[in-house]
Specification:
Number of helices: 3
Pfam family, one: Aldose_epim
Helix content: under 10%
Keywords: Plasmid
Strand content: 35-45%
Structural class: mainly beta
Strand order of the largest sheet: 10-11-12-13-26-22-21-16-19
Protein name: Aldose 1-epimerase
Organism: Caballeronia insecticola
InterPro entries: Aldose_1/G6P_1-epimerase, Gal_mutarotase_sf_dom, GH-type_carb-bd
Largest sheet: 9 strands, antiparallel
Radius of gyration: 19 Å
CATH architecture: Distorted Sandwich
Number of domains: 1
Length: 311
Amino acid sequence: MSATPSDTLVALRHGARRVLLAPHVGGAIAAFDETRDDRVIDWLRPATPAALAARDPLGMASFPLLPYCNRIRDARFMFDGAPVDLSGDGNAFAHALHGNAWRLPWRIAEVSESRARMHLLHEPSRAAAHHWPFAYEATQDIALDADTLSVTMSARNLSDRPMPFGMGHHPYYPRTRNTRIHARVAAMWHSTPDLLPTHAGPHPCVDAMASPEGLSADAFDLDNNFAGWSSRTATISWPDEHRSIRLDADAPFDHMVIYAPASHPALLCVEPVSNVADWINLDVARAMKGGAVLQPGESVSATFAWTTRVG
């Protein structure tokens, strides 16, 4: 069935599993949980009532990144021979961050018991989050079943000119002293103090993630992009709780971000993204930085999924 824009949460259910969507909070997922033996298991960090009341995407369980992921240096770049200035887009951060879709209300276009489609139409203007100078539309198709929560992200360039583009999602996971991250990547992007990439190279966390024990979420102070995520698979596990969640992604989600800050020991993000931070200003091979250019009318679509395991 179809629905109109709403400030209410939308619940998807499959047996004891539940997903809460907050379309009015940047098209975010507010919770993903299940009930076992009268105990609620949070697979993603749930949004608090305060975060929902404040409509704070950073307080959600996961939110979409469109039409680019992570930071753009000084909110400026050159594209197709012309400067693009995003400094007036209403973003409160030092550099343009995560695009604008997470700061705009989405609408529920279709919904059933275990599936939903969220839709966003962006038309440029000089107003805050509408400041991105290219028209585009995006959808998120979300499906819940007995094992997996999948999200298919799609976007189409509605402008009459090419548009630089990237996409991803920004999930927060429960973080405990025993949380481990397992993944195989080629290199970590080292960065400046204000988190802009400088070069991709080795780091102990790369080897730790590939080890049987995995990387402890507390081992390093991380807010970094990773290149060469060729398997596009990562697992977050809680060995003491005998449970894990596996992230699988399609191309072009060829890059991964880990946010595990030492200063905020409750926060952990392992993000599927199609471009590294500041990709559009980086003078490196496309394979190392990702990102794309959508021609007028061109579309892109890709799926990622979380598969849970207990026992």
